[in-house]
Amino acid sequence: MNVSLFVTCLGDVFYAKTGKDVVEVLERLGCNVDFPAAQTCCGQPAFNSGYHEDAKKAAKQMIGAFRDSAYVVTPSGSCAAMVKEYEHLFQGEPEWQEEAKALGEKTYEFSQFIVHVLKVEDVGAKLPRRATYHTSCHMTRLLRETEAPFKLLANVEGLDLVDLPFRHDCCGFGGTFAVKMNTISEQMVSEKVDHIEETEAEVLIGADCGCLMNIGGRLTREGKPVNVMHLAEVLNSR
After folding, report:
1. Which residues span the domain enclosing 63?
2. How far is CA 212 from the centre of its chain?
3. How far apart are CA 30 and CA 167, in angstroms?
4. What is the DSSP letter of 115?
């Protein structure tokens, strides 16, 4: 199966290892993975700030970059949800809307692709640690993917997964929200860290780099001994 990696901005700049983990897991599952060099930001920051014409420019670049891809897989539920929003972004522009719909239909978040397309729930991972999982807002509410990560984590050998209290609460990142409403964002992430500490977990797992950056930064600032891992890194542990 041919798959194109959409690494995302945060993945490209801050989480290169996550992209590498995604590729290695997919290749181990029999996929041929390529990386279209023309890919760019999905346009979500501009879109969420109300600059829809600027978001369209990014969307057109993305549509062109992945036009020939059979499947597009990304380690971000948030960015996958934005790509699926392109169809609505181009209302009134039939030619672009058709291509936007096609890209949205073949774009998947990493765990979603493994479970729903490859039909795999056990990737042979091993991580003997006590962990908890943060469910990101966009992946849960916009992409509406709630099961795939847990199905995969349930089959990680040695992993003791503890439920995170109020796991559906936002971590306070929210893209531009963390910049515009930084005081509120700080209180939200501090509350999230308190709940993580309640679980006595050694590892915090998540599927969106933005959330992991925000929570991980707060954990470090408060001196909490919790390791932060993207789901792809966990699934590539052996």
Report:
1. 2-117
2. 10
3. 33
4. I
Residue (of 165, 149, 118, 167) closest to 232 by Cα position = 149
> Considering 82, 117, 152, which residue would you say is the last residue of a domain?
117
**Best CA proximity match to 44, nearest among 16, 4, 83:** 83
Judgement on whether residues 78 and 155 belong to the same structural domain of the protein: no
Which among 173, 15, 23, 238 has a CA at the least distance from the CA of 110?
23
CA nearest neighbour of 73 among 127, 123, 125, 18: 18
Q: b/e per residue, 59-97, with b = 16+ CB within 10 A?
A: bbbbbebbeebebbbbbbbbbbbbbbbbbebbeeeeebb
Tokens encoding 144: 């509406």
- Residue 7, SS3 per DSSP: coil
Give the integer Cα–Cα distance in Å for 231 and 228. 10
**CATH number where 162 lies:** 3.40.50
Q: Which of 117, 149, 178 is the last residue of a domain?
A: 117
The reply to whether 108 and 86 lie within a common domain is: yes
DSSP string, 155-206: TSBT-EEEPPTTTTS--S-TTTHHHHTHHHHHHHHHHHHHHHHHTT-SEEEE
Q: What is the pLDDT of residues 81-137, one digit of tens each?
A: 999 999 999 999 999 999 999 999 999 999 999 999 999 999 999 999 999 999 999
Residues 141 and 226 grouped into a single domain: yes
pLDDT band at 180 (very low <50, low <70, confident <90, very high): confident
Q: How many domains does the chain have?
A: 2
Helix (H) / strand (E) element for 220: namely: helix 209-221
